[in-house]
Specification:
Structural class: mainly alpha
Strand content: 5-15%
Radius of gyration: 25 Å
Shape: globular
């Protein structure tokens, strides 16, 4: 039996809890409305399909199709096999979500998001935005896994899927626009490991219909799960950055849905206590405007789709090399390393993509020198260019020995402003120049529908039969009319 004193103390404790709860609601809630973070929570929770213009829908469908293609292709890579083996050894209480290119294999939703995120970036073939990040790979694998996690009577539609995908992309873009540093080719950390994690959390929060406070907490939790150093670029660890972004953002949203809380001002600039500002030295956040005034960034800023699997910066230098190769072979149509005395590459300063003699496929994908010389030697750069047998060719090494990098002051390390120039100094003293300011596939010069479909079909054909390839194309291009978005996952193995 409780004594009167114990009953009084218990009542006092309950009274204090109630008082503090009421105090928080009365005094903190209005304050939340004045923060950057709360504006993000309100946007994620409140935005609906009516806010998606036809331009945004069309561009996001292209992103989804392209990312599925590169993910399916990536499921053939060694790094994907390593990560998949790891995932299969993990405990999965509810193995319901599909994995690219693996029939009859299921993983838990978050591990499937991780594995498919790794696949999407395993060959550095996924889309790129400005400021620089890979927006689709962090978001799409999480959403695909989530469609299979939800019960049959609660499957989101294709429009729900498109909305959540665009929310995840939008949050990434908004966060990167808060920093001028983000406009440059990254130096310290790989952006998808930061903004991608936040985007995945936002997308899943929207997909699960979390309320505004839960969305805020999902972002706060995701911020504690973000970040990966650039030193792991050009290694097998780099694709893990995308896999982790997809998985950890997913987990952040799930934790928030269970009641976990974080700092409700995580996106605000708070003196003396770093939140998301820890990642950017010049971080200046802004609130998202009310929904009736909000315009999606994808409306005005298209996406870059890569024509071959390498770092985006390589696409300028390859197009420049191909143009100068045409000049060098104009007379007899043949190209030989022996005709060249020196090769000058005029590119921006970026340490991690300056690799004179790459030894692995991942280093080759991040090498100005390798990609320029491959284009000169073969007249193209494609998936096969990064096979080990191609890396070790004597005539390729002969060309690499002749390369000199120059960094003109006007060649800025930004995917919006950079250019690539290749100068060949021939044995006969002729000097030939090729320059690329905007490659085909850049957001200023986007791939046509035909080119994007050709890329998708080529990538998917490494794993899938023709009927599934056509089914994916048809489903994605008509996603607004799909009643059950989990239908898409049935074609991916």
């Amino acid at each position: 039996m409780f004594s009167k004193l114990q009953r009084f103390q218990s009542s006092l404790t309950i009274g204090k809890r109630l008082y503090h709860k009421i105090s928080r609601e009365a005094f903190e809630a209005p304050d939340l409305k004045e923060t950057v973070t709360s504006s993000f929570g309100s946007f994620i929770s409140g935005v609906d399909v009516d806010h998606l213009s036809q331009t945004v829908l069309q561009r996001s469908r292209r992103m989804i199709l392209d990312n599925i293609g590169v993910g399916i292709l990536g499921s053939t890579s060694p790094v994907f096999d390593i990560c998949l083996n790891y995932c299969q050894q993990m405990y999965a209480h509810d193995p319901v979500s599909s994995v690219y290119g693996r029939k009859d294999l299921r993983l838990s939703p978050t591990l499937a998001a991780f594995a498919n995120g790794v696949a999407a970036h395993s060959m550095d073939f996924d889309d790129t935005w400005h400021p620089a990040t890979h927006p689709s790979g962090a978001v799409l694998p999480a959403l695909l896994a989530a469609t299979q996690m939800l019960p049959t009577n609660a499957k989101p539609t294709g429009l729900d899927f498109l909305l959540a995908f665009n929310v995840g992309v939008e949050i990434q873009g908004r966060l990167m626009h808060f920093s001028q540093e983000a406009s440059n080719i990254p130096k310290r950390f790989h952006p998808p490991s930061v903004v991608g994690t936040m985007g995945s959390a936002a997308a899943i929060a929207k997909f699960l219909s979390l309320n505004a406070n839960q969305c805020v907490n999902a972002l706060a939790i995701a911020a504690s799960l973000s970040g990966a150093p650039m030193a792991n670029a050009a290694t097998q660890a780099k694709p893990i950055h995308i896999g982790n972004a997809s998985r950890l953002g997913f987990e952040a949203a799930l934790l928030a849905s269970k009641g976990m809380e974080g700092n409700v001002k995580i996106l605000d600039k708070t003196l003396g206590c770093f939140g998301f500002s820890a990642f950017y030295g010049d971080y200046e956040p802004q609130k998202i405007a009310p929904l009736e005034q909000t315009r999606f960034l994808l409306e005005d800023q298209d996406i870059a789709f890569k024509r071959f699997p390498a770092h985006l910066g390589m696409h300028w230098i390859v197009d420049a090399a191909l143009s100068v190769r045409q000049l060098a072979t104009a007379n007899d149509g043949a190209f030989s390393p022996s005709m060249i005395d020196r090769i000058i590459l005029r590119v921006p300063v970026s340490r991690y993509i300056n690799r004179p003699f790459p030894e692995t496929e991942h280093e080759a994908r991040h090498s100005f020198q390798f990609n320029a010389c491959s284009a000169l030697l073969d007249g193209e750069v494609n998936i096969e260019s990064f096979r080990e047998s191609k890396l070790q060719r004597d005539n390729l090494n002969e060309l690499l020995d002749k390369v000199e990098l120059q960094h003109p002051e006007d060649n800025v390390a930004s995917f919006e402003k950079m250019y690539g120039e290749v100068v060949l100094i021939l044995r006969n003293r002729d000097v030939l120049r090729g320059r690329c300011d905007t490659f085909y596939g850049h957001w200023r010069n986007p791939l046509s529908r035909e080119s994007l479909l050709d890329k998708f079909k080529s990538n998917a054909s490494y794993v899938l039969e023709q009927d599934k390839i056509e089914a994916i194309i048809n489903t994605v291009e008509n996603l607004e009319r799909v009643r059950d978005s989990s239908t898409l996952t049935s074609y991916l193995q």
